[in-house]
Amino acid sequence: MKVAVTSTGRTMDAQVDPRFGRAACFVVVDTDNMEFEAVENTNVDAGGAGISAAKVVIDTGARAVLTGNCGPNAERTLRAGNITLYTGVTGAVAEAVERFKAGKLTEATGPNVQSHSGMNS
Amino acid sequence: MKEIVVISGKGGTGKTSLVAAFASLAQNAVLADCDVDAADLHLILKPDVQESHDFSGGKLARIRADKCIGCGECERVCRFEAVSLSGPGNDIIAKTCTIDPVACEGCGVCVQFCPVDAIDFEDAINGQWFVSKTRFGPMVHARLGTAEENSGKLVSLIRKQAKRIADERGARANDDSPLLVDGSPGIGCPVIASITGADLVLVVTEPTLSGRHDLDRVAQLTAHFGIPTAVCINKWNINPDVTEAIEAGARDKGLVLAGKIDYDPAVTYAQVAEKTIIEYARNRTATQVVSVWNVIMDSLKTTK
Amino acid sequence: MILAVASGKGGTGKTTVATNLAKVCAAAGRPTQYIDCDVEEPNGHIFLKPQIDGREEVTVEVPQVDAAKCIGCGRCGQICQYSAIVCIGEKVLTFEQLCHSCGGCWLVCPAEAIEREPLRIGEIETGQAGPLGFVSGRLEIGHVRTPSLIRSVRRHIQSDGLAIVDVPPGTSCPVVAAIRGVDFVLLVTEPTPFGLNDLKLAVELVREMGLPFAVAINRDGIGNDQTQAYCKAEGIEIVASIPDDRRIAQAYSTGQMIVDALPEYTERFRDLATRLGAL
Questions:
Q1: C22-81 confidence digits (pLDDT tens)
Q2: C84 at the A interface (CB within 8 A)?
Q3: Do C222 and B271 touch, CB atoms closer than 8 A?
Q4: A92 by DSSP, 3-state: which?
Q5: Nearest-CA residue of chain A relative to C91?
Q6: Is the ipTM of this complex over 0.85?
Q7: Fold of B3-56+127-302
Q8: Using the beta-carbon criterion (under 8 Å), do B197 and A120 form an inter-chain contact?
Q9: From B34, which residue of chain A is nearest by alpha-carbon distance?
């Protein structure tokens, strides 16, 4: 199964980006073999960033998202794409995926921040 | 790194003069001018531009006069009254359709419905943004073209770049100096983009009925986004009674009272001299500004 | 005649000039309306103290998708430039706060599955301040559809009389919505470096829009003479100057009109109205 992690860099060592909509990029990891690819978050400067970012993630075929904060628009879009959301995730991308595999992350039940929260960070 | 955004419901309250003064007090702040409609901070801080970039925040539709058949379909579908049959003639028709770029909101509906594909849809260059050096620290600022949209997007971009500079500096030098933002006026799109996620918003107001009215609207906005908010009353002695009423109202709303500043022509003289009030005058007004800054720094320590 | 009172920068006295001008024109017997298009911070009512007799809700149209009729073609999501309607597989999501009401989605939908729903963005108050007609828009907190609301406010302008439009500050889209197609723009400025910088931007805008305009200097005497020098060099007429008078600032602070608190200024506003062809 593939999971998408918001990341400040393009590798497994990079830190989890706390923002979803305006994340620097997504590292998409296959949990079966830990192979990964970095996907640009192409819409970082556009309006409706959370929604655009969610569409990018959906197109990668990921089934789960690991991130810090996620606003309501992005959350709704991900839910429509049947993607499971995990918020409050920190540390390096590789560690986050290991915690996910070990079942140590808790599924988010909704957005954990307001709209526009990542606009400036 | 803590981010302080200075805003005012209405213009002309002295917001930018105060931001410039804070810049000279903070010494090492990263500065961002997000008042992109009426960017004035550069007039005092005299930035030395290091980097300049184009900003494109949306698209614009443009009709190619040589291909237009003048059918008026674009005019029919446009909801922004941007299309008129007043373009130059061509082989087919005496007047072609043309789009007023000032009214176009870049929705692309005309592009989709043009039966002869005569409408181009291109990225609009809406302005420039700059990274500069000033005598008080690095500054990110912009020039939005007149009549341009997307100032909310440009505001987000400026804050993001300023934050990046502040973070890099913090990581390198263990420097925890603040990010100081001159925010946009009003309560619309640009101001929302200026304040979301800030550590503290300082609202600069004046003791007038309009100032009071606008403060109420701005305070509702900061409450809506859950941002700690402080209030400073500039030119307070124009009307001490209204000042008192504003203070009482602010206290009721749980806002931090950051202080009062005199009505002082020296503030304008400083502006003419291209200096901050702190550099220009060691008078009572300058002391009051220092005190407001100290209150802000103290209340930042108590925010998360 | 539609006369817009604008300023590149806020707080230069735009509302002061607009309200006093409107009052002297109405008092002189000319059918006049004051139109407050500064919908983010409408302040005209503070000074004119109108009797409000009408309130109207302003809505814009946003899409609502009928899932039963939707065929999942994805065309609405493709045309939307604002992420206000998004197709995820066969599901269609709408985000009304991002919608510009361009109509693209319901026009392209081949299945007539998109209904137009009203979304409230603000309200308009109408009334009278003595002989003066009063119209004011007020944007709902947290909404971003300022130009749409301004266009609705302007629909209240009566074509046969004089309308004095109080324009939002700045030079961006709300300003364009407020001054597009007006007969004349009066730019109010202060003779300071900030005022001049913002005046230049406003001049650039009105020139780009091809509108006739002139300048009024408020708080004349503070700052320097660079504004006069700029206007002279650019061939811009200065049609009024209001001195820096602390009594004006005090009258303003309590919501008083200059022409009421300081009647000696009445002649100055009447003269301005005459020069602008409003009287």
A1: 999 999 999 999 999 999 889 999 999 999 999 999 999 999 999 999 999 999 999 999
A2: yes
A3: no
A4: strand
A5: A80
A6: yes
A7: Rossmann fold (3.40.50)
A8: yes
A9: A120
